[in-house]
Amino acid sequence: MTYIGRFAPTPSGPLHLGSLVAALGSWLDARAAGGQWLLRIEDIDPPRCPAGAADTIRRQLEAFGLTWDGEVRHQRDRDTAYQTALDHLAARGMAYPCGCSRREWQGHAHYPGWCREAPRHPERSPAWRLRTDRGSRPIIWHDRLFGEQRLDPTAQGDVVLKRKEGLWAYQLAVVVDDADQGITDVVRGADLLDNTPWQRQLQDALGYPEPRYLHLPLVMGDDGQKLSKQNLAAPIPDDAETAREWLPRALALLEPGVDRPHGGPTADIDTQLCEAVARWTPTTLATAPIRAADH
Ligand code: GLU
User: Fold this and answer.
1) Is the terminal CB of the chain with fewer CB neighbours within 10 Å at N or C?
2) Over the stretch 233-277, which tens digit does the pLDDT of each residue have?
C-alpha cells in the first residue's frame, strides 16, 4: 500500500499539546504503515504568521523526534498553483466572484449565495467562493475513526476560496497541495472534520483522488475548551531533553488504556516512538474530546 501522510501546521504560533497530538498521531500512522510523512507550512495568511514561528515548529518537531521526509513545503510559494485551480473551478462554474460584505449578510447563518448567478457589487474587488450547490450532494465519506460521514455542503455555505485582499483561503490551498504532493492519508484533529465536505467537493471538481481520512480526538484544556493558540495553550518544548519528559504525556493522550509506568527514568525519544509505532491502533481511540488534565 502506498502511504504519503503530512502534517500541515499554520505557523500562527508555536505548537502546543493539542497540535503535538495531531502531529504525533499523523507521524505514528505514517510510520506504522511504512509510509512517508511530509511537513507543509500553511503560511498563506502572513499577518497571522509571526516571523520565526515556522522555525520554532520545525525545532519542536525535531526535539520530539518527529522527522519528516524531503523538503518542507511552504504555501506562500504556491500562488500560481492555487490560481490555476481557481481558474479551473471558475471555468466550470464551481467558483464565483462575490463582493458582498459580511455586514450585508450577517442575519444569515452563512453567506446565502447572492452572487452565484451574477455579482451584486461588480464595482467592488471580489472574494471568490465555492458553489456548494453544484456537484454531487450530500457528500459521503468514510473516516477511519468517526465512521461514515454524510454532510450536505450547502448547509455550511459557499466557503471563500480567495479573499478579496488576494490571500488564498485554507480550503483551496489544502486540497491543491494534498493532491500535488500525492497525499494518500490525511490525519489531523477532529476540529477539521466538518471542513472535509468542502474539501471533498473541491477534490471532485478538480478531478483529484480522494485521500483516506483519520480525524483524531481533540485535546481540551481545564476550561473544557479545545487547546488552541487563541486560549494561549502553553508551547511545547523545543529541546530534546524536555521533550523526552513530555512525550509520554502526549502518547498517553493517543493511547488510552496503555499501561505506562509513572515517574522513574523515561526511555529516550527514539525508543518511546519505536514502541508507539509498534502499538499504533488508532481505531481504538474514543471519538470524544480528551481532557489533557486527566493524563
Ligand atoms: N493548517 C491547518 C491547521 O493548522 C491544518 C490543515 C490540515 O491538516 O488539513 O489547523
Assistant:
1) N
2) 789 999 999 999 999 989 988 887 776 554 445 689 999 999 999
Nearest-angstrom CA–CA distance, 199 and 195: 7
- 33 contacts 281 by C-beta, under 8 angstroms: no
pLDDT digits (tens, 9 = 90+) for 9-31: 999 999 999 999 999 999 999 99
Residue 152 CA: distances (Å) to CA of 96, 133, 174, 178, 199: 19, 9, 20, 22, 12
- Residue-range definition of the domain harbouring residue 183: 4-77+178-294
Residue 156 and residue 281 share a domain: no
Q: What's 16's DSSP letter?
A: B
pTM, two decimal places: 0.94
Domain edge (last residue) among 174, 199, 220: 174
φ, ψ for residue 218, nearest 5 deg: -75, 155
Q: Which atom of ligand 1 is nearest to the CA of 191?
A: 10
Cα(10) to centroid(ligand 1), Å: 6
186: CA distance to ligand 1 center in Å? 10
Pocket of ligand 1 from Cβ distances under 6 Å:
8-10, 42, 174, 188, 192
